[in-house]
TrEMBL record:
<dbReference type="Pfam" id="PF02668">
    <property type="entry name" value="TauD"/>
</dbReference>
<dbReference type="GO" id="GO:0051213">
    <property type="term" value="F:dioxygenase activity"/>
</dbReference>
<keyword id="KW-0045">Antibiotic biosynthesis</keyword>
<protein>
    <submittedName>
        <fullName>TauD/TfdA family dioxygenase</fullName>
    </submittedName>
</protein>
<dbReference type="InterPro" id="IPR050411">
    <property type="entry name" value="AlphaKG_dependent_hydroxylases"/>
</dbReference>
<dbReference type="InterPro" id="IPR042098">
    <property type="entry name" value="TauD-like_sf"/>
</dbReference>
<keyword id="KW-0560">Oxidoreductase</keyword>
<dbReference type="InterPro" id="IPR003819">
    <property type="entry name" value="TauD/TfdA-like"/>
</dbReference>
<feature type="region of interest" description="Disordered">
    <location>
        <begin position="1"/>
        <end position="20"/>
    </location>
</feature>
<feature type="domain" description="TauD/TfdA-like">
    <location>
        <begin position="25"/>
        <end position="308"/>
    </location>
</feature>
<keyword id="KW-0223">Dioxygenase</keyword>
<keyword id="KW-0408">Iron</keyword>
Length: 326
């Protein structure tokens, strides 16, 4: 292939930076353009690539080596996800009629993917966009007192695993051996509480981290996403009736155990909304997201929607507490 000139990303307001592949040889162009794509990811936190014609999980798996070093293993999933081919999974199971709030994938874990690669195989009839929100801009826009408190005490995630809601503990930890779960949790700083109905866990994490390469400070957590206050009110009421206030599938707290009120969760959500960019999916699109720099979300939608995701370039939480290059 003749060496094409890497196009300047389209930076339209409200939409992610967009690159269009060379129509003559889109896959060759993607491999050639990988360095420039990485640079755009570092600068903007997310890049949409059009014209690649990604039509299957295998297509996505073939593209990943150009932009990623290795797959990331998923542990502690909050909802079921199906492995399709090595390194590529189905999208998280989530009701089509409900929005998925902005979050950084597995930001409650001690190791998480540094790169997310979303490929649209079938676009929905309406809605269903995958939004991207700059974690640095979100951090700068949040109330200063909230940021100071979150930086001081961190945040905590409380989970109650069951066979009826979300991922079971067997699915989340990839084993049906409670001893293996306990061993994993000890190394990950997770408290476990086994009881007749299942497993409850608690873990405390930092709410603000630094990008391991650039050193940029970002709001990096799931305080709002995995909060009981983001549930549909009727669903929350039903779950409290069934399992009790302490048995909800997930809930977030400040790291010192203090409750995080509905108004705080709403304020975080409003800031995410202000800084989220979206673009309607087209078949064959590839959206790359720097999972430390940017949060992602998903709109409610109608009609069939098939988006698959590659999880790659695992990052250790400790690498995000040391500062980075700048």
């Amino acid at each position: 292939m003749s060496a094409p000139t890497l196009p300047v990303p389209d930076l339209r307001d409200g939409r992610p930076p967009t690159l269009r592949a060379d129509a003559a040889d889109p896959r060759g162009w993607f491999a050639w353009a990988a360095h420039g794509i990485h640079a755009a990811l570092r600068e903007h936190g997310g890049v949409l690539v059009r014209g690649l014609g990604v039509a299957s999980p295998t297509d996505l798996a073939a593209l990943l080596p150009s932009v990623a070093t290795r797959p990331a293993e998923e542990r502690e999933a909050f909802a079921p996800r199906t492995p399709l081919v090595p390194g590529v999974h189905s999208a998280t199971v989530w009701p089509a009629a409900q929005q998925m709030c902005a979050h950084h994938e597995l930001s409650y874990a001690v190791e998480f993917p540094g790169l997310l690669a979303f490929a649209c195989l079938t676009p929905p009839e309406t809605g269903g966009t995958t939004g991207v929100a700059d974690g640095a801009a979100v951090l700068a826009d949040l109330p200063a007192d909230l940021v100071a408190r979150a930086e001081r005490v961190g945040w905590a995630l409380h989970r109650s695993y069951s066979a009826e809601i979300g991922a079971s503990w067997q699915q989340a930890f990839g084993t049906d051996d409670p001893a293996a779960v306990d061993a994993f949790c000890r190394t990950a700083g997770i408290e476990t509480d086994w009881h007749p109905e299942g497993l409850r866990t608690r873990q405390r994490r930092p709410a603000v981290v630094r990008h391991p390469v650039t050193g940029v400070r970002v709001w990096f957590n799931q305080i709002a996403f995995l909060s009981e206050w983001t549930m549909d009110p009727d669903v929350r009421e039903f779950l409290v009736d069934c399992y009790g206030a302490d048995g909800l599938p997930f809930a977030t707290r400040f790291g010192d155990g203090a409750e995080i009120g509905e108004e705080v969760v709403a304020a975080i959500g409003e800031v995410y909304t202000r800084h989220t960019v979206t673009e309607p999916w087209e078949a064959g699109d590839l959206l790359l997201v720097d999972n430390v720099r940017s949060a992602h979300s998903r709109e409610a939608y109608t009609g069939p929607r098939e988006v698959v995701v590659g999880l790659a370039d695992p990052v250790r939480l400790t690498d995000c507490l040391r500062g980075g290059a700048a």
